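Quick log. Single chain, no ligands specified.
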Amino acid sequence: MRQSFFLRFRLLAVLGVVAVAAGGTTVRAADPPDFTGVWTTYQAPRGGGPGGGARGAAPAGAPAAGARGAAPAGGGTAPAAGGAAAPARGGGGRGGGAALPMTEMAKQKVAAYRALVAATGDTPGGFCLGTGMPGSMLGSGGYPMEILQRPEQMIVVYEAHAEIRRIYFGSRNIAPEDRIPGRNGYSSARWENDTLVVETTNLIEQVDQQYAHSDQAKIVERYRMIEENGRKVLIAEMTMTDPAFYTQPVTTEKRWSQVANGHVLPYECAEENWNKHLEELEKKAAKPAAK
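-> predicted structure:
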C-alpha cells in the first residue's frame, strides 16, 4: 500500500513538471493549450508596461490597414547562411533577405520571375492574391491573424487578403487522394505535450515570395505558447524541406503577441478593384462621343 502511494506521488510529480508551461502558467498535460484569439506581430516590451506599444498595431514600416490590395511588406525574416534564419519580426516578404541555399534550378526560376515583373513592380497582392505558405504564416507584412481552435480542427484567418488555413487533427483529416494543392497547401496537426506540430504539403510551386518553393516542399511548424510580462506570446519554429529548390532545410522563427479582445478587420481587395473599374467606366461614359 505504502509503495503504491509513493509510486502514484512520483507519477503525479512527473506529470506536473511536464505540464508547466513557460512563464510559470500550469497546464495539465492532458489538455492542450488554447491558442484561440487574435495575434499580432511580436514587439519586445518597452517602457510603460507589458506589451510596449499599441495592441494590434502593425510594426513600423508595415502597410497601413487601409491599403487593401497592396503587397505585404518585404523584410521580416532574414535567412542566415546555411539555411537558418533570424527570428521573424515582420512578414514573409515577396523577395529580399539574405541568400537562401537554393538549387541552380530554383535560382533560375526565381530570377526569371523577378525579371518578368521588374518593369511593372507587379505582385500577387496587387491582384488580390494571398501570399501563400510559408509567407502567410510568417506575418503577411504585419497584418494580424485570428485562430479558432476546436479539438478536431483549427481555423487560422490571416487579415491580409483574408487568407484562411484549415488545420485538421486525426480522423478529421481528408483522404490524401482528395487533397487539392494550393498556395497554402494542406495542413494536418498533432499535439506533442503543449507543442502544436503542423505539417503542410500539397503546395504548388511559388516563386513570388521570399521563401520560394516547388510543389515538393514540406513545411513543419512547431507552435508553443509562453507568458511574458503578463501577456501571451506564440512562438512558431518553421522548417521547410524541398529537394527541388533547396540543398538543405530552411528554418526560421516567428513570434506573435496576443491582442486582448482583438478583432481581424475585413480585407476586401477585390471590392476595391471592382469600384475602381466602375469609376473608369463612368469616366469613359462621361466623355463626349467622337464625331
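Residues 33-44+73-278 form one domain.
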